[in-house]
C-alpha cells in the first residue's frame, strides 16, 4: 500500500520540524517536503506530487487562503487541510470556500493529526458545526434554477459520490472509470452548475436534494 504524501507549509521552521516529528510515527504517511509560504508550496506541487498539503494561514508572500485558492484551481485532487493556531472564522471560511477540506488547530495530538490526514485523503471534510453553518451560508447564494435533466445519468452518479465526499480517485474506483474520465465528468458538472470547485459543488447539489 502506497503512503500518503504530505507537504507541510508554515513560515516557522520550528513548527515545520515539530509537525515532521509528529507525523514520523506513522507508517502510512510520507513527508515529501516543506515550504515556508504559499507560493513556494504551489511551486513544489508539480515536482513533489503531494496527496495532502498541511497549510498554515498567516504567512508572508502568499498566505494560506490565497495558496489554497491557487492550488485547488490548478490541482483539484490535492487535499488541502488548514493547520492554524487561530480560530479565525473568516480566514478559515475563506479557505474552505476555495476548496480546503477542513481545518485543525496546531495543539492537536499526533494521533488526531495523523487520522485527520488519512480522513482528508479519503475524501472526508472536517467541518465543526458552527463553521459548516457559516460556510453553507456563504456558498448558498441564490443561483438560477438549473434543469437536472442537463446532466447525463453518469454525471448524476458522479454528483451523488461528490456529495458524499468521495475524491476523484475514489469515484473512479466506485464507478469503474479511469481517473482521467472522472476528472472530465467533474469538470463538465462544474461548468453546467456554474460552480468553481468541490466545496461549492457539494453545497449546491445538497441544496438540490442530493
Describe it for me?
With 210 residues, this protein is of the alpha/beta class. The chain has two domains: 4-138, Rossmann fold (3-Layer(aba) Sandwich); 140-207, Winged helix-like DNA-binding domain superfamily/Winged helix DNA-binding domain (Arc Repressor Mutant, subunit A), CATH 1.10.10.10. The protein is 52% helix and 13% strand. The chain contains ten helices and five strands; from the N terminus they run βαβαβαβαβαααααα. The protein has helices at residues 13-23, 38-48, 64-74, 89-97, 110-121, 129-139, 153-163, 168-175, 179-193, 198-207, and strands at 4-9, 29-35, 52-55, 79-84, 102-105. Strands 2-1-3-4-5 form a five-stranded parallel β-sheet, with helices on both faces. It is globular, with a radius of gyration of 17 Å. The mean pLDDT is 85.
Amino acid at each position: 500500500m502506497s503512503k500518503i504524501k504530505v507537504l507541510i507549509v508554515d513560515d516557522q521552521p520550528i513548527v515545520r520540524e515539530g509537525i515532521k516529528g509528529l507525523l514520523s510515527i506513522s507508517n502510512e504517511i510520507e513527508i515529501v517536503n516543506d515550504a515556508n509560504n504559499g507560493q513556494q508550496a504551489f511551486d513544489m506541487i508539480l515536482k513533489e506530487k503531494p496527496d495532502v498539503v498541511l497549510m498554515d494561514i498567516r504567512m508572508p508572500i502568499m498566505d494560506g487562503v490565497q495558496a489554497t485558492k491557487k492550488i485547488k484551481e490548478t490541482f483539484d485532487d490535492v487535499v488541502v487541510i488548514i493547520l492554524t493556531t487561530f480560530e479565525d472564522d473568516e480566514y478559515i471560511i475563506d479557505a474552505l470556500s476555495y476548496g480546503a477540506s477542513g481545518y485543525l488547530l496546531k495543539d492537536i495530538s499526533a494521533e488526531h493529526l495523523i487520522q485527520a490526514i488519512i480522513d482528508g485523503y479519503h475524501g472526508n471534510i472536517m467541518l465543526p458545526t458552527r463553521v459548516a453553518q457559516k460556510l453553507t451560508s456563504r456558498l448558498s447564494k441564490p443561483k438560477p434554477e438549473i434543469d437536472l435533466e442537463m446532466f447525463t445519468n453518469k454525471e448524476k452518479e458522479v454528483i451523488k459520490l461528490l456529495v458524499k465526499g468521495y475524491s476523484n480517485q475514489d469515484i473512479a474506483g466506485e464507478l469503474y472509470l479511469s481517473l482521467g474520465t472522472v476528472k472530465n465528468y467533474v469538470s463538465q458538472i462544474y461548468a453546467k452548475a456554474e460552480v468553481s470547485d468541490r466545496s461549492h459543488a457539494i453545497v449546491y447539489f445538497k441544496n438540490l436534494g442530493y
